[in-house]
Design a protein that fits this description.
This protein is an alpha+beta fold. It contains 19 helices and nine strands. A hairpin with a 5-residue loop joins strand 7 and strand 8. The longest helix has 50 residues.
């Protein structure tokens, strides 16, 4: 096995372990308990396919964009901006779900205290889990996490081997391939779960920061993202099957199997089925329970340390590029640290434990609330017309509505409402993308039709006969080509063309090097005029100054060549704005490229300012 294949396998192992969170750990047992082998496969197959598809598609994204090994990182930096809150909430709920499930279903069946001591006991368990995640996250980091997870993967193999072969423990029972509830299950049907699982699990990885960070790092290491996630999906699938088969073996014990009935919805739950059985007195002195509890602990820990690393990366990057003035007053170390986020996770997990919630109450977010955001995120990767400002209020309203419909369907055991709650945000995103595309096409075609119609002799004669003569015949004739006098936009690029003349050249006929900066400067001023038409130098409270200017010369231009300058907003933070420019010649050849940094000062005393809100508003459509 060559280095890249080995590296892909190591990353695949890390992908599988980081994805083996509360859903994989305990919902696989619940699905097996409710619907037998059919339920287990319904859960496991789309889970594994979702990982594989994410790797395959992000590999395509990385190859389609420029930037070499940093292409995916550059793409994600811009792509993630409208989804930052969704990314953050997705990660918080995922970590809270994992901590909640581990404390309630792993440690819960093992504790013997009651009342106030139970709450204190669970609080200690929650904080120990989170502290362990912080410790290992700080220890490894994204560059070394695959090696740390490689060691954990070997430990899991040892645990699985002990469970399967130690003393022939599993040889003494039968597999119960069907649910022990049979027709007595009063909750939602398997069909009601199938569509939400397919939708939620196939699009789920696209909002997970852990996966994006891994994909970016894998690409930086010149390793195939697709193969890494193929191995990850395969390993993850076998881990789910192992856990589900273990549940089927426990279900084969018949009367020894105990299902708990929820006080809230009166449904039967068995997330902790295997934990309770292996933690019973019948297994005293056996190494099998230790191996199983170690298996669960490793799976939870590798999710928490991955979450810590991903949040640290995401929050640090977001803080550096934040446009919020209030955040600038808070110490960077506090905002960029995952510790406050982990405290939020602890609060959510403890609240769920004390309220005696079940895993499914957290899962409703992934089957409904996040579906629309994840679907639109996928569309923005591959559908050009979806690159419009995110309709935040509409998306949030749709997410809340679909979540309520899904929750109502779950409590009422109505499969149709479960399916509607999952498909509604997906259908809305499809309509949003198609509707935007139709509007764009109609606008473009309308302009073409009007321009073509104006050249028809009959229409031209009618227009000439009814149009008032506003200017004398000797007036300057406006350009008849596609280029406006004041420049125009091509996507997010502002474009302005001019013709080099004798005054722009040096003694040998080439355009003088200093003129390129002049061309860019003029284009920049015209861009400002288009983006901020109401800016008045007499009444403005701020001035825009040039902080730095860089330009790389590629080719020369001569007299009467067409010089086309393209300029756009590359990035912003609280204080500075960076503009990127490209200069092209008559034949479309690149003459040079570069960037400039702008700063903003008070018009009264030239004190340095944060970027004014009106500038943000003007520039945001072109970032």
């Amino acid at each position: 096995m060559n280095f890249r294949a080995l590296n892909a396998f190591l990353w695949g192992n890390s992908v599988a372990l980081s994805w083996m969170w509360g859903l994989g750990l305990f919902f696989s047992v619940q699905m097996t308990f409710m619907f037998g082998l059919q339920g287990l496969l319904t859960f496991a197959v789309p889970n594994a396919l979702g990982l594989m598809l994410f790797g395959f598609l992000t590999q395509i994204v990385a190859k389609r964009h420029s930037g070499g090994q940093e292409s995916l990182a550059i793409f994600f930096d811009k792509y993630s901006k409208p989804f930052r809150l969704a990314f953050y909430l997705y990660q918080i709920v995922a970590l809270a779900l994992t901590v909640f499930a581990s404390a309630r279903y792993l440690f819960g069946p093992l504790e013997t205290t009651t009342g106030l001591m139970t709450a204190m006991y669970m609080a200690l368990v929650v904080f120990i889990l989170l502290a362990a995640g912080c410790l290992f996250g700080e220890e490894f980091g994204i560059q070394k996490i695959k090696y740390g997870h490689g060691m954990f993967g070997l430990l899991l193999l040892v645990c699985i081997g002990i469970i399967l072969f130690a003393g022939g423990a599993l040889q003494s029972g039968e597999m119960l391939w069907k649910s022990p509830l049979a027709e007595q299950w009063e909750g939602p049907s398997l069909f009601g779960f199938t569509i939400p699982l397919l939708v939620g699990l196939l699009v789920g990885p696209w909002l997970d920061l852990q996966h994006w960070q891994r994909a970016i790092q894998i690409h930086r290491e010149r390793t195939s993202i697709g193969w890494s996630y193929f191995f990850g999906g395969l390993i993850f699938f076998f881990m789910l099957i192992f856990h589900g088969f273990l549940a089927m073996w426990v279900m084969g014990k018949g009367d020894e199997v105990i299902a708990m009935t929820s006080e809230l919805d009166k449904f039967s739950y068995a997330h902790d089925l295997v934990t309770r059985y292996l933690g019973s007195s019948a297994w005293e002195g056996s190494i099998v329970p230790i191996a199983y509890f170690s298996f669960l602990g490793v799976c939870a820990l590798t999710t928490l340390d991955s979450g810590y690393v991903a949040l640290k990366w995401f929050l640090g990057s977001s803080f550096e590029k934040s446009q919020n003035v209030l955040l600038s007053m808070v110490p960077k170390g506090l905002i960029a640290s995952p510790i406050p986020s982990f405290l939020i996770v602890a609060f959510i997990a403890l609240a769920g434990i004390l309220l005696k919630l079940e895993l499914e109450y957290y899962m409703v977010f992934y089957a409904s609330f996040f579906v629309g955001y994840a679907s639109l995120a996928i569309a923005r990767c591959f559908v050009p017309n979806s690159q419009q400002p995110l309709p935040q209020i509409r998306m949030f309203s749709m997410a809340i509505m679909s979540m309520v419909i899904f929750a109502f369907g779950y409590f009422r055991a109505e499969s149709s409402l479960l399916i509607l709650g999952s498909l509604l945000p997906l259908v809305y995103v499809i309509w949003l993308v198609v509707n935007t595309d139709l509007l764009r096409v109609v606008t473009e075609k309308a302009g073409e039709v009007i321009e073509a119609a104006s050249e028809i002799p009959g229409i031209k004669a009618i227009a000439k006969s009814v149009a008032p003569v506003l200017l004398p015949a000797s007036s300057v004739e406006l350009p008849r080509d596609h280029h406006a006098l004041g420049g125009h936009f091509e996507g997010k690029w502002f474009v302005y063309s001019s013709i080099a003349s004798y005054s722009d050249t040096n003694s040998v006929g080439n355009v003088y090097f200093g003129m390129y900066a002049m061309f860019v400067g003029k284009t920049r001023e015209l861009f400002f005029n288009k983006a901020m038409p109401d800016f008045d130098l007499k009444t403005t409270k701020f001035y825009i100054l040039t902080r730095s200017f860089e330009h790389k010369f590629v080719r020369e231009a001569r007299e009467f060549d067409t010089i086309t300058v393209k300029i756009r907003v590359a990035e912003t933070n609280r204080k500075f704005c960076t503009l990127e420019h490209q200069i092209f010649g008559t034949e479309g050849e690149l003459l040079g490229k570069g960037k400039q940094s702008l700063l903003f000062v008070s018009s009264k005393d030239y004190a340095l300012l944060d970027i004014p809100p009106e500038v943000y508003k003007a520039f945001m459509p072109y970032i």
